[in-house]
């Protein structure tokens, strides 16, 4: 089932997510619905807060990035198979000199900005079968993970912008929260007058 994606301005996007256990109600159905929702919106990641749930769950399918001709073959290969579910994820180490990349977000349609992030991270998480993993990601895989991880920490990519950039996009963000946007996918707007 395709779920509505929560728009910028909804308080759930600012909550730090709660850990869940394997008995979380209808977890496999929730993951399936989140995947369907993400693909319907042409996203490469989707976090539970973006569908209104303040839990530590997100999923990633970074394979569309593998089609970028400018990437090294090794990174393309990693991105092609970077399709995972992350439950109760934690970043345990960040390394390297920050690099910039233009990011967007399904909860903030039509806004794209350059964001600086560390290039290499080591993470711990549980998969959908509640098997525990510790893995290290670099490049775009690390970036997509960090973007989705921010969601379960109550952080949006726009929080990482300079105050000047924030002022420049303020009107766009206000319009998104009021539903004055056509995203091309189902959304839920916090300030929509009904």
Your description of this structure?
Helix content is 26%, strand content 29%. It has helices at 27-40, 73-80, 139-152, 163-177, and strands at residues 5-6, 45-47, 57-61, 83-95, 99-105, 108-117, 120-126, 132-138, 187-188. It is globular, with a radius of gyration of 16 Å. It has a single domain, classed as Peptide Deformylase (Alpha-Beta Complex), CATH 3.90.45.10. With 194 residues, the protein is of the alpha+beta class. It contains 4 helices and 9 strands; from the N terminus they run βαββαβββββααβ. The strands form 3 sheets. A 5-stranded antiparallel sheet has the order 2-3-4-7-8, with helices on both faces. InterPro entries: Peptide_deformylase, Peptide_deformylase_sf. Removes the formyl group from the N-terminal Met of newly synthesized proteins. Requires at least a dipeptide for an efficient rate of reaction. N-terminal L-methionine is a prerequisite for activity but the enzyme has broad specificity at other positions.
Topology:
Elements lengths: L4 E2 L20 H14 L4 E3 L9 E5 L11 H8 L2 E13 L3 E7 L2 E10 L2 E7 L5 E7 H14 L10 H15 L9 E2 L6
Parallel strand pairs: 1-9
Antiparallel strand pairs: 2-3, 3-4, 4-7, 5-6, 7-8
Roughly how many Å apart are the termini?
Answer: 24 Å
Structural class: alpha+beta
Number of domains: 1
Number of strands: 9
Write the CATH homologous superfamily: Peptide deformylase
CATH C-level class: Alpha Beta
Binding site for Fe cation: 105, 147, 151
Catalytic activity: N-terminal N-formyl-L-methionyl-[peptide] + H2O = N-terminal L-methionyl-[peptide] + formate
Function: Removes the formyl group from the N-terminal Met of newly synthesized proteins. Requires at least a dipeptide for an efficient rate of reaction. N-terminal L-methionine is a prerequisite for activity but the enzyme has broad specificity at other positions.
GO molecular function, one term: metal ion binding
